[in-house]
Design goal:
With 442 residues, this protein is mostly beta strands. The protein folds into 3 domains: 114 residues, no CATH class; 140 residues, Neuraminidase (6 Propeller), CATH 2.120.10.30; 141 residues, no CATH class. Helix content is 5%, strand content 41%. It is built from 2 helices and 32 strands. Strands 1, 2, 3, 4, 5 and 6 form a 6-stranded antiparallel beta sheet that branches. Strands 7-8-9-10 form a 4-stranded antiparallel beta sheet, with no helix packed on it. Strand 9 and strand 10 form a beta hairpin. The protein is globular and about 65 Å long.
Length: 442
């Protein structure tokens, strides 16, 4: 086994030129600008790509500490015509908050791929992608915690706002609504309300919009509850009171994986049954990680596996029923170091890379850094590192080096048909590269 390489990077400040004005453009534009894009979202039928884009302006000029102003745009295009994007201004933010808005936007296509739900820190609205008509569902005093489509004409969403008792109250009001697109907020249907909720939100709406799994409280020990959105019926899923750790719906909405400090359960709401996975989960993960890993929205598109990432276990694929764990991150590192004689950069010997589910079934993606013999370019850097993207199959038996490799986050994705890679290049353009994926083993 090769040694673990570490490096230190010095702090370097860069000031971009000052822009005197930022203009909002609605209509046909190129997919470019000064700023940063968000993650790549494919529509259910694979025909449309959408993402948010932030333009920033810093005032005043250095050396004074600048205030960051951000304007957020929604951009979308045909998956076959990436250079012809349509654009809508979503919102503007001033002062220091502008530097943190990128990760606070969530996009969700309707099942027919014709509409897009956009959740911002202030509103939830629906965009008709054909006519560019906008329907705002909530007001600025109703921060939306979660959302989901119920068919193509209704949205289910939850909000957490200050209770009627105001600041003297010890909790917030937790509400779950069903809302017909185009109807004003006054005509939406209240499905559930709780006035003494305390703590962060833990609401998870099924991909079909038929159910909502949530906790009876946020901070204290509580129970998992299940809401049927068609009949506004609520029932308890768990008998034990425990701290919330995670919940994740299978893409077809048939079951939900619920994780707490005392249990790991797989629930099948339509069948009314559950499977206790507590012993399996504890043996695989509980004793090896300090904090529970995020699992929401981490299923592979075919519903076979959940992605569980932790630096101590690496990126793993977990099939809940029957229980089966594939340590993809570990197997990738072992393959590169023992078979290809490469030196993988890690913070410690037992740290392994995370993996990302891809829209194309059968494969996951891992982004790593390889220590090279090149001269370091950054001040304070001890080892020159080369980023690499790998696609790894579900059993971590096949490893494909993919280019480009300089996009570590959500700005790189295999298309749902497996024919190309879509990514943001260094010029912040949406770009593509054809690929030929091997056939999936039967």
């Amino acid at each position: 086994m090769n040694p673990v390489f570490r490096h230190k990077t010095g702090l370097i400040g860069f000031f971009l030129p000052l822009f005197l004005a930022v203009f909002a453009v609605v209509g046909l534009t190129g997919c470019m600008g000064e700023g940063s894009p968000g993650g790549i979202y494919f529509s259910p039928d694979g025909s449309i790509i959408a993402y948010t884009y932030v333009k920033r302006i810093d005032l005043p000029l250095p050396p004074e500490l600048p205030t960051i102003y951000s304007t957020v745009y929604l951009q979308w295009c045909s998956s076959d015509q990436l250079k012809e994007c349509r654009s809508l201004k979503i919102d503007s933010y001033g002062k220091s908050y502008g530097s943190f808005v990128q990760g606070k936007f969530l996009l969700m296509f309707s099942p027919d791929s014709k509409q897009l739900a956009v959740r911002s820190p202030r509103y939830l609205e629906i965009i008709d992608l054909g006519t560019m008509t906008r329907h705002r569902l909530t007001g600025p005093d109703e921060p939306v915690a979660s959302m989901g489509w119920l068919g193509n004409r209704d949205m289910v969403y939850s909000v957490f706002r200050e209770s009627a008792a105001g600041k003297q109250s010890h909790g917030v009001t937790h509400q779950i609504f069903r809302h017909a697109i185009g109807e004003p907020p006054g005509k939406r249907l209240l499905l559930y309300e709780q006035n003494d909720y305390d703590g962060p939100s833990h609401d998870y709406i099924s991909p079909t919009g038929e159910y909502v799994v949530f906790m009876s409280q946020g901070y204290s020990k509580a129970h998992f509850l299940l809401l049927n959105t068609r009949f506004a019926e609520v029932k308890a899923l768990t008998e034990k009171s425990a701290q919330f750790q995670g919940a994740s719906w299978k893409p077809d909405g048939s079951c939900v994986f619920c994780l707490s400090s005392s249990e790991a359960l797989l629930w099948y709401p339509k069948e009314g049954r559950k499977k206790d996975l507590s012993e399996d989960y504890d043996k695989s993960f509980r004793g090896f990680i300090q904090y529970a890993p995020p699992i929401d929205g981490r299923w592979t598109p075919d519903g076979e596996y959940i992605v569980i990432n932790s630096s101590k276990t690496g990126g793993c694929l977990v099939r809940p029923d029957p229980w089966h764990v594939v340590p993809v991150g570990k197997r990738l590192v072992n393959h590169l170091e023992e078979t290809e004689n490469l030196r993988v950069y890690r913070d410690s010997p037992d740290d392994y890379p995370y993996i990302f589910a891809q829209p194309y079934p059968g494969w996951t993606r891992a982004w790593i850094q390889i220590a090279t013999e090149k001269k370091p370019e950054m001040p304070g850097q001890k080892v020159a590192l080369e980023p690499m993207n790998y696609l790894v199959d579900y059993e971590a038996g096949r490893f494909l080096l993919m280019q480009p490799s300089d996009t570590p986050g959500g700005g790189w994705s295999l298309s749902p048909d497996g024919r190309k890679i879509v990514y943001f290049n260094r010029s912040i353009f949406l770009d593509e590269k054809p690929v030929s994926m091997p056939a999936r083993p039967k």
